[in-house]
């Protein structure tokens, strides 16, 4: 290989009646270039993989080249494959680099890395969505539950990827008052920059929340002021029990004791939970 390489001409002959009167001189001063021949690597293949957010592709097979004639060349280096991008897909192009050429005649060749390799990147599974929470609510006769998904977790997600919850619907197991009630979550769907690179194995989950009693109000007056104050104190101290004096009609409640939990004051009256006995005169009917 080289440029402006001298070219020697031979083989011309002279004939004719007067040829003997001449000495034939072959043309001189000719030059030309010899360019390297392409030597293409072959023998490699790329393996399919499951999405890992990396570009790397695993190669298999044995890289090889075939030189011209008796030229002496060797193939060295380490072949490396990379996908065009990290995302899930079928028949994705894989670019090979890293092979090198050695040997006595290596300078006469241009090494061409193997081209045309493809492989698939498959979706991994998100086994479940965790961390969705439901808000407590006051009894309203239905099972609907308001959800918060900002703390959602995605087991199986590759570190550094971005996933969020696109949709989810929450429903209490029943509409009745209670603490720590099961909330069933359905219709979970993935969103986020990398959502297309995953499959969601389960679109359901569960959590818990409270349904607080929505109860009647007691009109505030002198007769029942002590009962209201007692109930408010119980509310401030969370669930407990207390002795009530006074009633909504001014009669003495007889010092009856009832279990009180989750008491709320609305407007001018106090709301008592359904847990207070029906014969309790403090309950406004």
Could you describe the 3D structure shown?
Strand 17 and strand 18 form a beta hairpin. The N and C termini lie far apart (about 105 Å). The protein is built from 1 helix and 24 strands.
Summarize this structure as a short list of keywords or feature phrases.
five-stranded mixed beta sheet, 285 residues, mainly beta, disordered C terminus, 1 helix
Helix-strand layout with pairing:
Layout: E1 2-7, E2 30-34, E3 37-40, E4 42-46, E5 49-50, E6 56-57, E7 59-64, E8 74-83, E9 89-102, E10 109-112, E11 117-122, E12 125-126, E13 133-134, E14 137-138, E15 144-145, E16 147-148, E17 164-172, E18 178-191, E19 199-200, E20 205-212, H1 225-236, E21 240-243, E22 257-260, E23 264-266, E24 269-271
Parallel strand pairs: 3-10, 5-11, 12-19, 14-20
Antiparallel strand pairs: 1-2, 4-7, 6-8, 8-9, 9-11, 13-16, 15-17, 17-18, 18-20, 21-22, 23-24
Order of helices and strands: EEEEEEEEEEEEEEEEEEEEHEEEE
Estimated share of beta-strand residues: 35-45%
Give the radius of gyration.
43 Å
Measured distance between first and last alpha carbons: 107 Å
Query: What does the average pLDDT come to?
Result: 84
The tally of strands reads: 24
Q: Structural class, from secondary structure content?
A: mainly beta
User: Biggest sheet, strands in spatial order?
Assistant: 5-11-9-8-6
Distinct helical segment count: 1
Given as residue ranges, the uncertain stretches (5+ residues, pLDDT < 50) are: 238-285
Reported for the largest beta sheet, the result is: 5 strands, mixed
Overall spatial form: rod-shaped
What percent of the residues sit in helical stretches (DSSP H or I)? Answer: under 10%
